[in-house]
Amino acid sequence: MIRIHPEGKRILATTFFSLVIINILVYQFLGRHWLTFSLMIISIVIYVLVLQFFRNPKRNIQPDPDVVIAPADGKVVVIENTQEDEYFKGARLQVSIFMSPLNVHVNRYPIGGTIDFAKYHPGKYLVAWHPKASTLNERTTVVVENETWGKVLYRQIAGAVARRIVMYPKEGMQVMQGADSGFIKFGSRLDIFLPPDTPVDVKIGDVVKGGETIICRRV
């Protein structure tokens, strides 16, 4: 049985009843017409697609203070030393994960600890791989701190399709590694900012699983 994330239940209910009403109206108008049956098939496909956007499969999450885990499902598209200007205002290693519409959209805490910073930014909806998406798009910035890693920042970034970011952390909260930290409805990107030159266990092009794939480990 498919587990559905709470963020999707209202949308799924609205989509279901809207499609049912549309199909009933078309049937009453056209009767047993090929367009009626075509619309029924299209409606089923649409609902299945929306359903898979909000699936929340169980993950084998084993909290480990010595590792940073992937906060989202998707493909690693960036690994580079960069300048992080919002919080650290200095050099950081950025690892970016692109979430396609077919990926699980649940976001998770990459490490456990205390939420030191949490902020939502309204913004534009450039495609997620656009160079300026990290600073111009709708996004959130969250910093988790613990004794092993110090402060790790992750950023949810909306894209051209995603128009709604949900974030759960608030400053001062104690959070568990791998627990739900939010949701990006219909995809996009998640960036992690680590200490400069941190050795990572992934490479560009790797497909990662949120809560399971190790991004890097303490040496």
Structure description:
It is a single chain. The protein has 219 residues and is an alpha+beta fold. The protein has two domains: 6-53; 67-217, Glucose Permease (Domain IIA), CATH 2.70.70.10. Helices cover 22% and strands 34% of the residues. The chain has three helices and 13 strands; from the N terminus they run H-H-E-E-E-E-E-H-E-E-E-E-E-E-E-E. The chain has an eight-stranded antiparallel beta sheet with strand order 9-5-6-7-11-3-2-12. A three-stranded antiparallel beta sheet has the order 4-10-8, with no helix packed on it. A two-stranded antiparallel sheet has the order 1-13. It is elongated. It starts with 5 loop residues before the first helix and ends with a strand. The model has no long low-confidence stretch (mean pLDDT 88).
Which regions have little confidence, pLDDT < 50, spanning 5+ residues?
Answer: none
Shape designation: elongated
Number of strands: 13
Computed over alpha carbons, the radius of gyration is 20 Å
Percent helix range = 10-25%
Output mean pLDDT: 88
The CATH architecture of the largest domain: Distorted Sandwich
How many domains? 2
For this structure, what is the CATH class of the largest domain?
A: Mainly Beta
Largest sheet report = 8 strands, antiparallel
Strands of the widest sheet, in order across it, are 9-5-6-7-11-3-2-12
Task: Please give the alpha-carbon distance between the first and last residues.
Answer: 40 Å
